[in-house]
Amino acid sequence: MRSTDRAAALAPAAAVVGAAAVASAAAANAPASGAAPPSLLVAAPPPPPGARLTAADPLPPLELEAFADGLIRDAMDREHIAGVTVSVVQNGQVLLKKGYGAASLSPARKVDPDTTLFRIARSPRPSPGSP
């Protein structure tokens, strides 16, 4: 299943979770006297799958994770990468922080996005002082 297909498949679940949270908030804010609840600020419904978001639109967390999972795993397989960490930040908020693959093969250790360190550069040639 492609990552875009995964994201589209998760969109209805995200909408249900969002609707349940709004209903729960409405119930919590309802006055005990039985009067009509005050008007609530309700977030706009999520955009349809595949729609372009503006910079101000929040990224749907479930769709973001599904998209990243597919994209990262495909790239790791294609490029023979053992491990990687990914962080997605929007408006100063961390939306996704996840480790994929292995940080070490011997001893076997999974990538932890909080503690695993990777080298960020390599030299294709030996340095002039090396044998």
Structure notes:
Helix content is 35%, strand content 18%. It is of the alpha+beta class and 131 residues long. The protein has one domain (3-31, 38-49, 58-110). The protein has a 3-stranded antiparallel beta sheet with strand order 1-2-3, with helices on one face. α1 (3-29) packs antiparallel against α2. The radius of gyration is 22 Å and the shape is elongated. Residues 6-40 have low confidence and may be disordered.
Please provide a brief summary of the model:
The protein is of the alpha+beta class and 131 residues long. The chain has one domain (3-31, 38-49, 58-110). It has helices at residues 3-29, 61-79, and strands spanning 83-90, 93-105, 108-110.
Oligomer: single chain
Low-confidence stretches: 6-40
Q: Give the termini separation.
A: 49 Å
Measured by DSSP, the beta-strand proportion falls in: 15-25%
Keywords for this structure?
131 residues, alpha+beta, 3-stranded antiparallel beta sheet, 2 helices, elongated
List the helices and strands and how they pair.
Elements: H1 3-29, H2 61-79, E1 83-90, E2 93-105, E3 108-110
Antiparallel strand pairs: 1-2, 2-3
